[in-house]
Amino acid sequence: MREVDGLAASQPAEGPDHLLAVMERFGDRLVDLAHLVLDDDAKRSVQIAFTSLSDKIATTREAFDGCDGATDP
């Protein structure tokens, strides 16, 4: 999470899409690392959790994409 926080602070102009992509990569790396140290049941739990997180990130990205060009009332 420090990596994500650091990017948000150091590269705010990149916007939420870049931040969401970093979060997805971070989640993928965590799953890869989990597969090295966890038993099969724990691996499945981690995979399910990060698949859910990835889906939520995709939904968030779609919401931001839907706001492109929108103006405040």
What does this structure look like?
It is a single chain. The chain is 82% helix and 0% strand. It is mainly α and 73 residues long. Helix 2 (15-37) runs antiparallel to helix 3.
What are the key terms here?
mainly alpha, 73 residues, 82% helix
How large a portion of the residues is in β-strands, by DSSP E? Answer: under 5%
Profile the largest sheet.
Answer: none
Q: Give the termini separation.
A: 34 Å
Order of helices and strands: HHH
Structural class: mainly alpha
The amount of helix comes to: over 70%
Tell how many strands the DSSP assignment holds: 0
Query: Tally the helices: what do you get?
Result: 3
Unreliable stretches (pLDDT < 50, length at least 5) are none
User: What would you report as the Rg, rounded to the nearest angstrom?
Assistant: 15 Å
Overall mean pLDDT stands at: 76
Shape: flat
The oligomeric status of these chains comes to single chain
